[in-house]
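assembly run, all chains below
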Amino acid sequence: MTGLPAFLVRRFLQAVLVLLVLAAVLYAVFYIAPGDAARLACGPKCSTAQVAQIRGQMGLDDPVYLQFWHFLQGIVTGHTYSTGTGSLHCPAPCLGQSYRTGELVTHLIAEKLPATASLALGAMVLWLVIGVGTGLLSALRRGGITERLLTGFTLVGVATPVFITGILLLLVFCSWLQWLPYPSYVSLTDDPQQWAWNLLLPWLALALVEAAKYARLTRSSMLETLAEDHIRTFRAYGVGEGAVVRRHALRGALTPVIALSALDLGTMFGGALLTETLFGIPGLGQQLVQSVQLKDLPVVVGIVLVMGLAVVLANAVADVLYALADRRVVLA
Amino acid sequence: MPPAPPSGARQIWRRLRGRPAALTGGVVIVLLVLIAAGAPLLAAIEGQDTTSYHPGLVDSASGGVPLGHFGGISGSHWLGVEPGTGRDLFARLVYGARVSLGVAIGATILQVLIGVAFGLAAGLGSRWVDSLLSRVTDVFVVMPALILAIALLAVVPGSFPRPVLLTLVLGFLAWGGFAKIVRAQVLTQKSLDYVAASRLAGSSPWRTARRELLPALVAPVLTYAAITLPTNIVSEAGLSFLGIGVTPPTPSWGQMLSSATTWYQADSSYVLLPAVLLFVTVLAFTVFADGIRTALDPRAASRLRVGTRAGRRGAGTADSAATPADAASGIPGPADPRGGGAA
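ok done. output:
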């Protein structure tokens, strides 16, 4: 495939451009915003002289474009901060340090990533099982009650925001039935069983909403594949219906599903803001919302860049998956 | 050459009439708009307002749970009162409808205006203009709009009216889809004979755009707007739910849900009211948008007569084709009005 490398390069450049614009816009927005980062970092009890010293250390007296340039430099070469008494080295993909806690943004992101990944991966397994299952079922048993049920399920799922599904799940399973404890995140390495138990509701909330989309996609894609000529040929040769579906139709039908999963997983890796906030999962999304409210610019920019990167990468992966599975797609 | 899009409200109405689900959605939407428009009247009939505290109606010993059954429902407080403050829930819900629908409709109108302007300019402009505008559009399509919205909302001072701010932020961030659709449509139409004839007859490009192209844009733009509107409702609710959108004392359904999350264990009716309303609203708009799409799609319309199954299949296929690009954007896709990236 000669087009692929060129496509990847173009895709990469586009991704870099989008991320740069994003970072620049955020920088501009927060620079215009009222509020002095040095005072934020120093705390309310600082004297004016101390604040001024911190401003100097943080480079806040530089013009904004210079600050932005230093930030970009830090990503490529790393950065060494002076902390007054000593110095703090921030290695190569340096995204700066938090105004509030002084923690390196890259450390903070690495710290929050496991929770976000746990939520995203678990939810994806569930939504694929539920979504693809119902989608296939209704494609293979057309008409009648299954199809109508699926139409209803899809509509309701598509129309329900995740925070409503989540609140209802909490209400039913924790308040009324009291089958589950109110979720509080436990890390996988601490206690796998508690990890899964506490993530069950967040997984379900996300998965139910996503599954509707996947059911619809699987169904239409399966029906489309089954109507294609080569499937008709297989049938004409006397291949049994089960074998036709399993051996021949499934692969073609699931291609868009897999591509879409790649996309959604990328989006989720960027942090499911609402789900994490609702269920109190200490992931990237929750951190972003908190940092935005605290005007902690380096953390906000860092997390947004990681989120953007995840989305853009997933986007490219999905395109490539599509192209590999279906030669008719032209990469552009 | 695709058949001309159906013209006239009457034709759309005739096609919508055959779809009871879409009609039901339409009726619900009309009711909601009436409720939102008549909020002051409704609250006046009840005799309450959105901001008055009623400390006597909540149990201060338990931290502020409303006294009485089902969140304190009574003759003077039709849907009960808010835990903690005792503010009237009926008044807050009907006034909240104003904010929720107002922001969504306003944002959609902004998105349409910006998107159509960009799409027209890109489609009609020179190759250089087109590629510049298309790049700008691409950035806005791929940009995680909700995340940027959060950052913007956080830095604007609290004195700026939040509903207006939300409208502006959503409107200015998520117009990329409209621009893409309009550009594609303009490029298709531009190559058609009737547009060329108009140009040959001596019309200026501007006149051609206005007289020949704009009418052809109505159907796709209207369809996409109908799909986008529930997305905007959910975006507003989501941002307010995160505590970054509409903040108390101004009510919106998302804001009410947000404050309800701390109360759902003690007072479940407070959570259920805005949740159910939001759900019903988004469902109504989604079903109606689906109806509009079928009614305005010349291909689907002819299938309608043959049987609903073929029509539905057509719709499903259109989705699968549209989803990858849309889902990638981090902006909620058209068939996915839940706040995509922010789920």
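Chain B has one domain: 21-303.

The first strand of chain B starts at residue 58 and ends at 59.

not gonna interpret more than that til we talk
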